[in-house]
Backbone:
């Protein structure tokens, strides 16, 4: 193989990887947004102002509502066959807000990690 061609190929691959890495956008940080929610103080309207509409809403007969917000933190390398098993993070952030009437009564933040595949 020609050395010039090999150098160009390495440059192109490196360039694509760098551009792909720069193109990913950070998502919402649900942990910091959870800090804005104060049970017995924050209203339903304020939650909508801070976080927007929830992804899921569960309504119960006693009038309580559970609002769920999710954000998946993806492994940067997840589309690269061999490397995806060894590098990066992959988990889902969950913010659960319990509301009764117009008042927040509980706010819980947690993460869910996908189980690793057995080899």
Residues:
């Amino acid at each position: 193989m020609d050395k010039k061609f090999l150098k160009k190929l390495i440059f192109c691959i490196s360039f694509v990887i760098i551009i792909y890495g720069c193109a990913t956008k950070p998502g919402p940080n649900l942990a910091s947004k959870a800090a804005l929610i104060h049970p017995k103080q924050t209203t339903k309207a304020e939650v909508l102002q801070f976080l927007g509409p929830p992804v899921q809403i569960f309504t119960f007969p006693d009038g309580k509502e559970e609002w769920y917000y999710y954000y998946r933190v993806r492994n940067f390398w997840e589309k690269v066959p061999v490397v995806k098993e060894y590098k990066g993070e992959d988990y889902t952030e969950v913010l659960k807000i319990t509301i009764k009437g117009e008042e927040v009564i509980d706010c819980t933040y947690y993460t869910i990690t996908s189980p690793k595949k057995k080899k």
Notes: The radius of gyration is 21 Å. The longest helix spans residues 3-23. The chain has one domain: 27-113.
